[in-house]
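User: I'm new to structure prediction. If I give you an amino acid sequence, what do you actually give back? Let's try with this one:
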Amino acid sequence: MIRRLLLGLALAMTGAMAPIAVAPAYTQELSDKAADRQILVMLKMGPPHFRPNSSYGGSYGDVTAMATRRRIAIGIAKRSGLTLVDGWPMPLLGVDCYVMQVPAGMSVDDAIAQVSKNPRVAWSQPLQTYQARGSPASSSLNDPLFRAEPAASAWRLADLHRIATGRGVNVAIIDSKVDVGHPDLSGQFIANMDFVSSGNVPSEAHGTGIAGIVGAKADNGIGIAGIAPDARMMALRACWQTAAGPTLCNSLSLARALQYAIEHGAGVVNLSLAGPNDELLGKLISIALSRNIVVVAAYDPALPQGGFPASFAGVIAVSDESLQSRPARVYGAPGRDVPTTQPGGKWYLVNGSSYAVAHVSGLVALVREQGARTKLALARSPDGAIDACATLVGTSPACDCTCAINRRLGMVRKR
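Assistant: Good question. You get back a string of structure tokens that encode the predicted 3D arrangement of the chain. For your 415 residues, that looks like this:
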């Protein structure tokens, strides 16, 4: 059983409800030392075999087939001098993803090259490392905070909510553990899955903060209002908060969360993270984009091309709008002194591009409610920051935000 896959993706923290379910603990955290000696091995799934009773064998639901593939993985590990740790099926990609331990005296690159020679292996890769980029909460706030939200004025959020609130759109929050019982968040989720641990763990700051910005309740007399308060969120824990501060994830836990989001109807996926390219995650993101799922990720100027997955074609790359210089493809959104939800029924101020990503994920949910299912056009202000009003209702020199909203409301009433 995997105890802790600590080497891997770390969040770029520049930052009535369905039954609550907890995933099996296939990716419990590993120590740093263990994780940097591990690789992922993708074992191909053979074609299903037709049976006389008109059913097919060999699928991921076939226990015999799964056991067979595991025996094959054990054999590959043994012949390569590795140790099989655990694995997880990736049916969207037609593979099983196995974690193998590399022994001392063998390089990770050599281990990858060795197992890749086997014709049953689709590909192999190391676990990637990503660094958190968001600052922790800075102060506790207890009064209604809508007017303190940057989007309340800069995005004219109350006016936007006259047009759309994200109703009918599912937003996957792939992050650390969300406090789904927070008074500003309770009842806002259709899923609460843990892809890191099997036991009960305390709610964590980063994931709870992201969820609040995206979809905190509106008009409930407390706290804040999310950008898309009527969207329904999936709290998908693929990351964990460390004692040292960073919130970390790994390739396998994120891949499992992505697979879940794709298979369970997410319209928007919030990935507030950045780091090196990852083949496994890239293949899953490609599937998401092919199904018209919008993926939003954090841009990190310290990483080549702003880091992955923001650099991935089709992903919406977002940074804190206070960033002085950013490429034309990167959108700016509020990411400083943002009040949001925190564990224990609290509200804090947060900073970083992770929270800018959450703003854009919420805005995309508003646009999706209006029927945009294919090409998504985000409007910009002259400084490169997102123009939320123009994105949602369209504006022109002859018709500003107020005019465009009133015109849109008039069209709705005429229907």
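You can read the tokens as a compact description of the fold. Here is one thing that stands out. The CA atoms of residues 128 and 281 lie 11 Å apart.
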